[in-house]
Amino acid sequence: MGDFVHHAILVTDYGVADSHEALVAAHAVALRLFNGVAPVTPITASLRNGYSSFAVFPDGSKEGWNLSDLGDDARDANRNDLRRHHDPIYP
Fold this sequence. Notes:
Elements: E1 9-14, H1 21-33, E2 44-45, E3 51-56, H2 66-85
Antiparallel strand pairs: 1-3, 2-3
Helix pairs in contact: 1-2
């Protein structure tokens, strides 16, 4: 028996989905880091006010299992990339 902890990431930025460079760059990094580890959604525009977002869904593995550890490593790398190259509003 084991525990599931569902970590997800939501990245939102102001700008048009196909022309906002920072969001497109962050999405490309997420696609690379989570390839084979966790699903990454396409960039999707909000219905109003010009925001666009993408999500990284949970890896779906039990804590302590190999895939869960890969997900933890990918999330750490993604968080570090966002902090280095973008203006995050989270701790």
